[in-house]
C-alpha cells in the first residue's frame, strides 16, 4: 500500500466521521430487526390517538399478511402489490372512489411505520421501501357548496323525520355554524363551551386546537343538550337520548335517512363535509380569503403559500362573519 493510498483512506475516514480508535473497538451491538407483528404494536403505542385510529386497520392487514416477516424484507414491488390488493378489497361506501383512499392509507400506514424504523436506525432512509412507492393520485373532489334552498331542505327533513330530530338538527347547525369536521364535533366536551364569549374549543385532525365562535342560540341549545343528556364532570357533549356518547354511526344514519327522503342527497353522495364547503365558500365570497381561512382553522403555509404569513384574520373577524351568517349578534363581533 502506497503513502497515497493511506492518505486516501484517512481522508475517507475523516469524511465519514470515523476514527482509527472506532475501528479498533470492533463492531457495535445493533438492535435486532423486529417482525411486523412485533413492530406494529410498538409504533401503535407511540403515535397520537388520531394517527392510530387512521392506520390501525391497515396495520392489522399488514400483520395478517406479513406478521412473521422482518420489517426489512418487503420490497417496493410487494408494497405496491399489497396496496392494489387493498384497493380491490375496499368496502364500497356511498362516497367510494374506487378504493384509492384505502390504497393511499395503506401506503401511509407503512410510511409511518418505516419513519420510526429509520429514526431507530433499524433501516436506512435509502433502504426505506415505502418511501419509493407513490400514493395513488387523488381525484378532484366532488364536494361543493350547497345552495341555500338545498340546505333548507336538509334541515327540514332532519327536523321532521328520524328517531331523534333534536339531536340531528343540533348536529347540522353545529357543523353549519362552525364548519368543523366530524372529529371536532365528537371531541367537544363540556369544558370546551365558553358561554360568556360564545365560543367552543375544537380539537381536530393533526392535533389542532382552536376556539370557534358560535351563535348564542346554538350555545344555549348545546348547554340544554348537555343538561339533559350529559354525564360525568366533563364528558362528551353530543349524546343519544339514553346518554350514550355519539359516534360516527349517527352521521351515517343521518345521511342515509336524508338520502331516502331527498334523492339528490343520495345521488350526489352528500355528507357532513359538504356543510364545511358551504360555510367556508360563503365566508370567502362575503368576507374574503383571510377570514375563510381562519374560519376553517387552517394554519400551515401549505394551506395557501407564503403570503398567508401576512394575511391573517382574528377571532373577532370570524365572529363578525358568523353574525352575518346567522343574523344574530355575537359577543366578539364588531359592534
Automatic annotation (TrEMBL):
Keywords: DNA recombination, DNA-binding. The keyword DNA-binding applies. The keyword Cell membrane does not apply. SUPFAM superfamilies: DNA breaking-rejoining enzymes. It holds the Pfam family Phage_integrase. Belongs to the 'phage' integrase family. This is Tyrosine-type recombinase/integrase.
